[in-house]
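Let's sit down with a protein and look at its sequence and fold side by side. Go ahead whenever you are ready, and we will take it from there.
>
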Amino acid sequence: MADRAHITSSEALDRFRIALIKYQERAAAALHEMGDEVRRTRHWVQQDRLPHWNHELRRRTRLLEDAQQRLFSAEISSFRDTAGDEKRQVLRCREAMREAEEKLRLAKKWDQNFDAAVGPLAKHVDNLRLLVDDELPRAILALSQMIQALEDYAEVRPPGDIAPPPS
């Protein structure tokens, strides 16, 4: 067994440390973007889609009421050729109103279920964020200390070894 380890270079460890630093930076940015995207989606559902479909339902209800009033007026005035147009308009308005009701129902469902659907996945992301934000910096520091220790060790001369004269 040798009295001394043969260390020629710590470059491989240093390259690994640099790669780990780059990975940490990219992973932290991706996790930050992911958190932002979740917040934007929640905001979009709560602050955009719910009010939008509530407004659309009211607007389409008014359009249906107006179309029904025009149909009623056409039927009373006995203009049979125009009553067909009004009937088609009432049907289109009813379909548009049903669509708005369905979209509003879905937006309410998304709002109610958002945290339950995203929560378990967000927990995994939080665990990964903890690893990237806390553990990786410690690992990088440990690698730096190991590299320094190996470099210091490589400079130590074994007993009885004569140091080369300075150049």
Q: What stands out?
A: The chain is about 85% helix and 0% strand. Residues 11-152 form one domain. The chain has a mean pLDDT of 88. The chain has one domain: 11-152.
